[in-house]
Structure formats: structure tokens, C-alpha cells
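Try it yourself: sequence plus 5-O-phosphono-beta-D-ribofuranosylamine, in.
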Amino acid sequence: MANIAVFASGRGTNLQAIIKAVKKGKIKANLALVVSDVKKAMALKRAKRAGIKQIFIDPAAYPTQGTFEQEILKHLEAEKIDLIVLAGFMRIVGKTLLDRFPDKILNIHPALLPSFKGVRGIQEAFEYGAKITGVTVHFVDAKMDHGPTILQGVVKIEDADTLESLEKKIHRLEHKLYPEAVRLVTEGRVKIDGRKVIRLL
Ligand code: GRF
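Structure, out:
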């Protein structure tokens, strides 16, 4: 069974959805570690409540991204982590982690990539006046919100939607899509072929 580490900086609702899917046996993996770069992240509390090992690593304590990631790597190696799941981790993953976990890092983005990259994906789609937006789960590579797409789901933006109602719809979809993507990857049901992620039966 794969050992998973979830990286989160904030509320951790996606972490919670993954915890639930593991508990229900939908994802057959061991949630071994939750890593946060924010001491007070709600995600750490959720991990604690679920009995998952959690650590806060303070980026301000390290002179460079590389040394910060070396510290994270130590913990990942101690737990024999096979897969990293970014769930609201508000940092770019650097070379240290990418080299050690090639095609083994997932991310979720609250828009249909390549549209509306960056940290304000929901708001920017709304303000742009898009009629559809959605959620993307993808492998992580060196560029932000860029690696091969595993799953996407569509959310309609109706005239009656507010930013808040749209956020709710997006998060509801995220909580379905992310556990499903983690399941596919941990069961070895996807293969990367260039930009494409091919489903294996
Ligand atoms: C999600 O909207 C995710 O798409 C984005 O950050 C948010 C994290 O939310 N990358 P949560 O911490 O899982 O509630």
C-alpha cells in the first residue's frame, strides 16, 4: 500500500475529503503524514483529530527553498512516502522535492487549467464572466499549475451565482474529484504520456 503525505497550508477541506475516502476504503493507501508551512493551519488540526502524524515546518527558519525542502524530505523519507498530495499548499514545489518525487506529486486547482492559473482561480473566472469553470487535478512539474491533467470537472456559472455560491460549488466538486484522482494514481490506473494522462483499465 502506498504511503501518502498531504501538504496543506489552510483549511484542509480537501485533506478531510481524502481522509474520509481512505477511512471508507475507497482509497487503499496509508495516510502517513500531513505537512504544513503554516503553524495554525486548520489542516493540522484535522490531521490530529484523524490520528494522522502532522508536522509544521517553518519556511522562515530556512535560508533557501532548497534547505526548507531538504527538511521536508527528511520527514518524507522517515515515513517512506511514495506520493505527495498538495491540498491548498500555498507554495511552489522546488527542484529538491520534484527530483526526488518525479510524477509522484499531485495538485488540485480550482479552475479549468490552463485558464485562471494562480491563487485566485475561482474569483478570476467569476470576474471574467466565464460561463463555465471547474476543477483540475494534475501532476506537478516545475511550472506553476502546469503538469499533465489527471481529471477535470466542470462547474457552470449561472447568472444567479455570487462568488460565494460559486466557491461552494467548486469546493463540493473538489471533494469528489480529488479522492477519485488519488484513487486512480494509487491503484496504478493512470500512465503519463507526454502531456497526456492515459487511463488504464
Ligand atoms: C482549494 O480550492 C484548492 O483547489 C486550492 O486551495 C484550496 C484549498 O482548500 N489549491 P482546502 O484547504 O482544501 O479547504
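One thing you can check immediately is this: The pocket of 5-O-phosphono-beta-D-ribofuranosylamine is lined by residues 8, 10-15, 87-88, 108-110, 174 (CB under 6 Å).
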